[in-house]
Amino acid sequence: MVFSRSSSQDVKSRAKAGAAVAQSRAYQAKASALRAQELARQTAATQVAPLARSAQEKAARGLLEARAWTAPRVEAGGVAVQERLAPAVSAAMVTAARRIEPPKARRRRWPLIVAGVVVLGAGCAAAAQVLKSRRNAASMAASDPATPPSMPQATPAEHQEMNDAAHADVNGQVRTP
Predict the structure, then answer these.
(1) β-strand partners of 174
(2) Residues 6+ apart with CB under 8 A from 165
(3) pLDDT at 64 over 60
(4) pTM, whole model, 2 decimals?
(5) Residue 168: phi, psi to the nearest 5?
(6) pLDDT band at residue 147 under the 50/70/90 scheme
(7) What is the pLDDT at residue 175?
(8) Cβ neighbours for 168, distance < 8 A, ≥ 6 positions apart
(9) What is the dihedral of CA 108, 111, 112, 113, to 10 degrees?
(10) Are 175 and 163 in contact (CB under 8 A)?
(11) What residue spans of 5-48 are helical by DSSP H?
């Protein structure tokens, strides 16, 4: 087949005309789609919105009914856990803690006994010394009936002079001027 120049121009013009027709139909389809979308919006606003509101109200009522049904059962479960399960769990935990705890170290009693014996011995020695000094004082008083005259009491001014004269250092030693 041989194509002539006129036939190729004819094909081009037909193609252009077909493209124009296709483009106008595309615009018409787009306009129809926009009209359909707007109509769907209006229909949704007038028909679907009330249905959605009633569905929402029904769901809210259902939720309240479910909560009213569930609340006493949850409370009963809580009471059962508190009265039955919690004491058992608590007892098991206490038992486990007692098993885990290491044994307590035994206290040595002999240092306490030794300390008591030492204190008792010191007390006895002090009592013996007191009795001995009393016996010596009594024997001295019986052998020497004349007692030396006692010294007169110092006045507060003399007492202050004695305190000023003797000073004690930090280590307990007394210095006199």
Answers:
(1) 168
(2) 176, 177
(3) yes
(4) 0.32
(5) -105, 135
(6) low
(7) 63
(8) 174, 175
(9) 110
(10) no
(11) 5-43
Q: Which residues of 133-169 are buried (b: 16+ CB within 10 A; e: fewer)?
A: eeeeeeeeeeeeeeeeeeeeeeeeeeeeeeeeeeeee
Q: Tokens representing 141?
A: 């008083």
Q: Are 98 and 91 a contacting pair, CB within 8 Å? A: no
Tell me the torsion sign for CA atoms 17, 23, 28, 32: positive
Q: Give the distance from CA 71 to its chain's centroid.
A: 30
Token digits for 131?
């009795």
Does an H or E element contain 112, and which?
helix 110-143
Summary mean pLDDT of the chain: 81
In the chain, where do the E strands start and end?
167-168, 174-175
Contacts of 166 (CB under 8 A, 6+ apart): 174, 175, 176
Separation CA 142–CA 155 (nearest Å): 33
Handedness of CA 127, 131, 133, 134 (dihedral sign): positive
Candidate from 11-15, 112-116, 164-168 with smallest mean pLDDT:
164-168
Residues 151 and 158 sit within 8 Å (Cβ to Cβ): no
DSSP classification of residue 101: S
The DSSP output letter for 153 is P
For residue 40, what are its two tokens? 């769907």
